[in-house]
Structure formats: C-alpha cells, structure tokens
Amino acid sequence: MSTEARETRTLHAVLGSGPAGTTLARELVRRGHAVRLVHRRADGPALDGVERFAADVGTAEGARAATADAAVVYHCVNVGYHLQVEMMPRIQEAVLGAVEESGARLVVLDTLYPYGETRGEAMTEETPWRATSRKGRMRAELDERYLTAHREGRARVVLGRSADFVGPGVLNSSLGAAVFPGVLTGGVVLGLGDIGLPHSYTNIEDVAAGLATLGEHPEGDGRVWHLPTAPAVSTREIHLMIEKRLGTPLNVTVLPEARPFGPFDEEFMAEYAEMFYQHTEPQIVDSSAFERAFGTAPTPLTQTVDATLAWYRAWLANG
Q: Are 211 and 157 in contact (CB under 8 A)?
C-alpha cells in the first residue's frame, strides 16, 4: 500500500488489548483500516499494521489522547470483577465524553448482564432488561446512558453484545483456561453449574468481526445488536466434541455453586456468585437479527473447538 493510500485511511482506535481488543485490531487491519490499540502500558507483542498506544482511558485526558483523530472508537475495556461496579462507570464517562467532543463513532462491546435471569427464554435484542445483580444493574445503567447520548444527538453509539467468549487467546472464560489445559494434559476440566443445559458461547473471532462490521456500518447505530453466536448447545456436548477429537474421556469436575477452584480464586468467585445463575439456567443467545442485517453467520462450534485446541496446544508448548 502506498504512503498516500495509508494517509487517506480513517483511523480506528481500539480501547483495551485483551483477547477481544487484540483480535479486533487484527480484524480491522485485515479489512484495510489504520488501527491504534490502546492499553495503559501499551505492552505486548508487535502486531502488523497496529500502533500500540499507552493511555488510561479511565481519565478524561487519557480518553481524549487515546481517541484523538479516530473516526471510529471501539470500547473493549474491562477490569477485574471486584472493580467493575466502581470503575466501569468512570471509564464510560471518560470515553463517552471524548467521543462527544471529537465526533467519533463509538462501538461498545457489551455483555448479556442487563437481561438478568431469563428462566431459559432465548435472548433477543427485544428481551426486557431485568437484572437484579449489582453488576447487571450497573451494565444496564451504562447501556441506557450510551443509548440516551445517541438519542439526544450527543454521540453516535452502537452496542454489540456477546455471550461467553471462546476461541484462540481466550483464557478468562468458563470455556477457557479452566478447560483446555486440562483437556490437553489429562488434568482437571472444570464445568460450572448444570453442564447439561443449553449455553451459548461466542467465538472471539466472531466478536471481532461483528464489532468491525458495526464500525463500518453507521446505519446500525443507536441500538443493541447481538454479535454472531452459534446455536446454543450444552457444555457437556462441547466436552463430547473434544473427547471425539482426542479419543479419550475428559476428567471433568463440576462446581454446582460458586466457590474457589483452579484458576478461579476466592476474590473472583465471591464477586461471581451473583452471576452464577448463568450456569444454572439455559443461556441462549439469538443473533439472527445481526445475521440478517449484515449478511453474516457465526463460526460453527466444531470449527471453534478445532481452532481453540490448536491455539492451546501451541500456548502450552511455548510455556
């Protein structure tokens, strides 16, 4: 690509360099965009076509610096569970203020928490927000502020909601480092709650592709979208997919309630207890509205399992 062509590309700023932000940065580069990936320390391996940028987006000054000159800003920042209720509103205030000043469009990576307990009802974008947990109510309040800012013309905002992440690079998930290292080493494979219930998982690459699509389509602004998510199956069925590939049974331990185990320490589980309903009732995400609107489809779970096993094999081999 010529220097002139690079200079005419619009800048897309990705806030947060966890699995979602990093995968999104790669996807945006693949689509031909100039990309800035923002983290408090700007550390991590070099990514082709990505500028790493250090800023604390929980402050007004840091958010303005991180989003300067960007046409589209993607909010993929998350914090530790015990810090969410305190810090996520502060981050929202800074980021929303920055895009209100600059005029950049804002694409927010969101959770299912605002829906609260659904008693097995499939979640669509029309599902009422009935959260009773602290973190669920906090997320619902943040989302209403985003949508209000859009309705009032102060910012251009769109929200993309995802189920639990799974896929290459995903560690801190109920289908992440608590599962795949044990799968490949013969160690303990952790299941949470009732693993026979349907449970939606969103491939991290579908998260990235969905957010990038929202960033490229302003006609989708001003609402919530469910990012492409494969049809729900039980976690036990996913275990069976893995066993079929490995030719050996898994050593599964199931936690019927939130208590410390393996990578989930006491501090995390104390905060996660109010969200444990996600593993004791079906969690079914319907992303058909997004798929129809943008002509996309989620990655089949079989392909997701294959890619995740391959990534964890390499991760374990590299120590």
A: no
